[in-house]
UniProtKB/TrEMBL annotation:
GO MF: oxidoreductase activity
Stored Pfam families: Amino_oxidase (PF01593), NAD_binding_8 (PF13450)
The protein's name in its UniProt record: Monoamine oxidase
Family membership: Belongs to the flavin monoamine oxidase family.
Amine oxidase domain ranges (all copies): 97-343
Gene3D superfamilies, sorted: FAD/NAD(P)-binding domain
Organism listed in the record: Nonlabens ulvanivorans (Persicivirga ulvanivorans)
Length: 354
C-alpha cells in the first residue's frame, strides 16, 4: 500500500482519527466530507454567551480507554459531569415532577473542555499534509481493475483504497456502487442503527447556575416529555452555565419554534420562572439531518446490528473498507467505538503493507 492513495469518506471522529494516525505515513490521504463543516455527528455550538453546548455526543467514561488516551495525547482536558444535589423526575402526565436525591457513588462521566468539538479541532489542526474536501457529497463509487473511482458533486478522484466512515445505512442508500454491493451487506446495512439519528438535543445558556444555588443538580427526567433528560452543562472553567438534554424523538416532525415553546413550558414546570431567563436556546434535530439519517422505512432498535461481522470483510477486491463507529466490535455507536474502529483500520492498513 506504500505511496498509494487512500480516500477516507467522512470527516467525523472516526475519519479524522484515521487520517491522524496515517498522517506521517507514505500514503497520499484525502478526506471527503459531504457537510460544509468537520465533525460529523460531533457538534458543539458556542452560544451568544460563549457557552459551549454539545448537540451531539457529550460524555465519556473511565472504560473509554482508547478515547481517553487519544485526548491525553492531544492534550485536551476533561472534567467530571456535575451530578451533585437533588433531581426531578416526572413519571406520568398531570403529575408534578417529584424531587429526589441523586445516589452517591455513581460511576462518573466526563466531558471535554470546550465541548466535544475540541477533539475535532485538535485532530484537524495537525492534518496539514492531509487533503480535506468539504461540502462534497459522494455520489458514486466504481471499481476498476487497479483502483476505485470516487465521483462527488464536484469532481472525480482515484484511490487504491477507500475507507468509508459514513453510517452504513447512509452509505448503501445515498451512494451508487458499480458494480452493486452484495445483497447480504446491503440488507445488514439497511438494518444497522445509526448513532444519534433518532436524537433531538437542545441546550440553554444562562448568566448564572440558578439550579446549583437551589441545591439542585440540574438533572431532570420525564416519562412524559417533551424533554426526557436534562443535565447541568456548565463549562470546564465553571464560568459559563447551561442546561442541556434530549427531547422525545417523536417531536422531530415539529418546527424548531414549536419544540422550543414546549421545552420552555416544561422547564418552567420543573425549575421555575428562572429557567426562562436564558441567554440563548440551541437545538439539533438529527433526524432532519440528511447526512446522518438515511431516508428509509426501517424501524430499528438502538445499536441494532452495530459491530456486525459483515463489516469485517473487505469489498471490491480489497479496495473498500466499511468503517465508522457503527462497525466497531466494541463500544459501537459511541465516541470510543469511533476511535477504536479507526485504530483497527489503521493497524490493518499498516500490517497489509508489511
Amino acid at each position: 500500500m506504500k505511496n498509494k492513495n487512500i480516500i477516507i469518506l467522512g470527516a467525523g471522529l472516526c475519519g479524522l482519527t484515521l487520517a491522524y494516525l496515517l498522517r506521517n505515513s507514505n500514503y497520499q490521504i484525502t478526506v471527503i466530507e459531504a457537510r460544509n463543516r468537520l465533525g460529523g455527528r460531533i457538534l458543539t455550538k458556542n452560544t451568544s454567551g460563549e457557552t459551549p453546548i454539545d448537540l451531539g455526543p457529550a460524555w465519556l467514561w473511565n472504560q473509554n480507554t482508547n478515547l481517553l488516551n487519544l485526548l491525553k495525547e492531544l492534550e485536551i482536558p476533561i472534567h467530571q459531569q456535575f451530578a451533585t444535589g437533588n433531581a426531578y423526575y416526572q413519571s406520568m402526565a398531570r403529575q408534578p415532577p417529584q424531587l429526589f436525591q441523586l445516589p452517591e457513588n455513581q460511576e462518573p462521566s466526563y466531558r471535554m473542555a470546550g465541548g466535544t468539538n475540541s477533539i475535532i479541532k485538535k485532530l484537524s489542526s495537525v492534518l496539514s499534509s492531509i487533503d480535506l474536501k468539504l461540502n462534497e457529497p459522494v455520489l458514486n463509487l466504481e471499481e476498476n481493475v487497479h483502483q476505485m473511482d470516487v465521483r462527488t458533486s464536484k469532481s472525480t478522484y482515484q484511490a487504491d483504497l477507500v475507507v468509508s466512515t459514513i453510517p452504513p445505512g447512509l452509505l448503501v442508500n445515498n451512494i451508487e456502487f458499480t458494480p452493486d454491493l452484495p445483497d447480504s451487506l446491503v440488507n445488514i446495512a439497511n438494518n444497522t442503527h445509526t448513532w444519534m439519528a433518532d436524537s433531538i438535543k437542545f441546550g440553554l445558556s444562562y448568566h448564572k447556575p440558578f439550579w446549583k444555588e437551589k441545591g439542585l443538580s440540574g438533572s431532570c427526567f420525564s416519562n412524559v416529555g417533551p424533554f426526557t433528560e436534562l443535565y447541568d452543562h456548565t463549562n470546564y472553567n465553571e464560568n459559563r452555565f447551561a442546561l442541556a438534554g434530549f427531547m422525545k424523538p417523536e417531536l422531530s416532525d415539529l418546527s424548531s419554534s414549536q419544540r422550543k415553546k414546549m421545552i420552555l413550558n416544561q422547564l418552567e414546570e420543573f425549575l421555575g420562572k428562572e429557567a426562562l431567563d436564558f441567554i440563548s436556546y440551541e437545538e439539533q434535530c438529527w433526524a432532519q439531518e440528511k447526512f446522518t439519517r438515511a431516508q428509509s422505512h426501517y424501524l430499528l432498535s438502538p445499536h441494532q446490528n452495530n459491530g456486525h461481522s459483515v463489516y469485517n470483510h473487505l469489498y471490491f477486491n480489497n479496495k473498500l473498507i466499511i468503517s465508522g463507529t457503527e462497525t466497531a466490535s466494541q463500544y459501537a455507536g459511541y465516541m470510543e467505538g469511533a476511535v477504536r474502529r479507526a485504530q483497527s483500520v489503521f493497524e490493518f492498513i499498516v500490517s497489509s503493507n508489511s
